[in-house]
Fold this sequence. Notes:
Layout: H1 3-26, H2 31-37, E1 38-44, H3 55-68, E2 73-82, E3 85-95, E4 109-121, E5 124-132, H4 134-140
Parallel strand pairs: 1-5
Antiparallel strand pairs: 2-3, 3-4, 4-5
Helix pairs in contact: 1-2
Amino acid sequence: MNTMLDTHAIAETAKAIVRRNTEEVQGGGDFALFDRLFADDFVDHTPQPGGTPDKAGARLLYGALREAFPDFHAVIHWQAAEGDRVTTYKTYHGTHQGVLFGVAPTGRKVQFDTVDVMRVQDGRITEHWGVAHLYSLLQQVGVLPAMLPGA
Length: 151
């Protein structure tokens, strides 16, 4: 067995699963696929405020984003994998047509960057760590000022 080829195959498979989540679940709203891609014991190490760090919490967040932005989708700029962990840098896009974090729809087109890491084991997403530029998103929907004080 060639360990280098095995490691590469694991990484490529993991990247494909994460890409399907980004494109088909988050972007396409395929929650039946969500249920197949995410392990039942999934752990989100960086849940959004008020969210839970489990599969139900991730599903709730994805649903809330699709309700707030029916055209929600991401452009993946790059992915890198080390073993079973996939790091993805992407920009989410959407039109604010539903309530978001208690903010009434504005009709504005928004975009915000995200970097996340997902662990994929046995073909399922088991863990997540991520950082989203939500300050930028809240600026775009008019909740926060466009500039920091004193800038």
